[in-house]
Amino acid sequence: MLAIESATIEVGVALAGPGGLLAALVARPGRRHVETLHPAIVAVCSAASTPLASVGAVCVDVGPGLFTGIRVGVAAAKGVAFGLGVPVVTCTSLEVLAEAAQDVALTVVPVVDMRRGEVAWAAPGRDMRLGSTADLAADLAGLEGEAMLVGDGALRYGVAIVEATVALGGAAPRISSEDLGAPGVAALARLGIRRLAAGATTDAARAEPCYLRPPDARANWVSRPAPVVDVGARADPTAVPW
Amino acid sequence: MTGGDGLVLAIETSCDETAAAVVEGGRTILSSVVSSQVGLHERFGGVVPEIAGRAHVEQIVPVVGRALADAGFDPTGRPLPATGREGRVGAVAATTGPGLVGALLVGVSFAKALALAWDVPFVGVNHLEGHLYASLLEEPGMALPVVVLLVSGGHSLLVVMHGPRYYEVLGETVDDAAGEAFDKVARFLDLGYPGGPAVEHAASGGDSQAVPLPRPMLAEGLDMSFSGLKTAVVQFVTRHPDVRTPDVAAAFQEAVVDVLVHKTLAAARAVGARGVCLAGGVAANGRLRERTVEACEAEGLPVFLPSRAMCTDNAAMIAAAGHVRLASDGSTSIGAGAEPSARFPVSPP
Ligand SMILES: [Zn+2]
Questions:
Q1: Residue in chain A nearest B342 by alpha carbon
Q2: Which pick of A44, A89, B14, B293 has the fewest CB atoms within 10 Å?
């Protein structure tokens, strides 16, 4: 199985089988996901001496996270899976973060930084949520037992989340160390192999990113930057910025 | 080089159309599928980048699958048994720019991954260069040099093509693209989206003489400007609120067409062109087509107008350009990215 992780500023690629990882590569390309991911696939196949054509499934982190990274990763997963005629296994970034923290004895709550002051999280046994750190604190205050927050949202907003949770009468959650800050490709591959074995697959056409937020509906003038024009500006032409 | 018979699968996702095509030998279109997102962007009066990016991710597999099936190939690029063909698809091309970055990335990422899966070359194609090949696909016998007026929502360029991969840019817009002006005027007049067809439709019932509008930069070289024309429309309508909308639409369209035709003929004369052709979405405008033919005929200059489907964005033109690029420059690095503000590629003879 080929595993593709690109939901954050990291790009990770791994080849894994039922026995574990065959090869893995992690790079921090900044925003250059599409420049980094495909050469990494080539490099990992060569490191594992396994031709890409022999891959039997593609596993991908569908987010939530960095929109650009997720789209590049999902599009690449679709390309490989479609071209080889193999199934796709999808995992959310929150599931991958929780998988990476499988050895933590506390209640693990993955928290992803969604920017604009919002985070996405999933308390064990509950649905994924998107909201402010105050919304997250309200959820945490109601949790049984001691929680450990993992993910880049936990690292960025840790202090605010702890203070807000305590203010609501909850137990102060622990914040993980940096190594549990990003969904790792090794955890993704492990989770993917289990799902594949359980038959939890989809196909290239149906695999979709998990954005958690409706699109920014701001029209753009195709390829050159230009001011946004309000619809209905006819009554007052001085309001037309062009 | 491409395997088989030079069969190229191309993918185009630079703006709001998800397109895929299979072209043989750079000339024969075996399939061409275009999935338009126009309905998704309509209520915003323009293309919304994030909506476009998301829609491309949803559409890419069905569109590519359909293009392959229509051409007689399975998803692994091999011929379907019923076709009796032997060669498999030998290269995957994709538009790398210019365009919306979030839209381009989907096509580039998918195409590179598909090329890796099939173990065939990847080739990145400049979208503007692609538009030139739209005409060559339909009229391979065109005598060179040919002057191409490339007008779309994002671009207004006058290019002379001396030979495959040998072009010169003669003029371009200094501000808005022609199609952009159509979109903005259509929005101002409440005519709907996309603006080109909306203005053309409204103009059909109007009198272009009823509204005096300028012809910006008409006598100033081969560059163009459309921003002032749009402002003139706004000012005229403000001062004459009772003016008939069809008259405004007709006058605006006539002014744009005047400038485009005048500059195109001047460019053709300047380089001693042996022909003229149109390209890009605005080249589907009926009035522009009519006036270009009239003007070229008056000068005894051969003119070629691509079909309307070849004017608007499609992947067949990307496949044709990819075929030529592969033969001249070889494959593109698998580490290639999107180039949202790529310029028209000008290469020496
Ligand atoms: Zn175009």
A1: A223
A2: B293
Q: What is the 3-state secondary structure (H, E, C) of A187-225?
A: HHHHHHHHHHHCCCCECCCCCCCCCCCCCCCCCECCCCC
B58 interface with A at CB cutoff 8 Å: yes
8 Å CB contact of B154 and A75: no
Q: Using CB atoms within 10 Å of the CB of residue B141, give its burial: 0 to 12 exposed, 13 to 18 middle, 19+ buried.
A: exposed
Predicted ipTM of the assembly = 0.92
Q: How many independent structural domains does chain A possess? A: 2
Say if the Cβ atoms of B188 and A233 lie within 8 Å: yes
Which domain does A24 fall in, by range? 2-93+183-206
Distance from CA of B109 to the nearest CA of A (A): 5
Q: In this structure, are A170 and A196 located in the same domain?
A: no
Question: By three-state DSSP, how is residue A88 classified?
Answer: strand
Q: Is A209 on the interface with B (CB under 8 A)?
A: yes
Q: Quick one: A192 and A163 in the same domain?
A: no
CATH topology of domain B143-305: Nucleotidyltransferase; domain 5 (3.30.420)
Which pLDDT tens digit goes with each residue over B236-292?
999 999 999 999 999 999 999 999 999 999 999 999 999 999 999 999 999 999 999
Asked if residue A44 belongs to a domain, the reply is yes
If you measure CA to CA, which chain A residue comes closest to B241? A235
Same domain, A16 and A86: yes
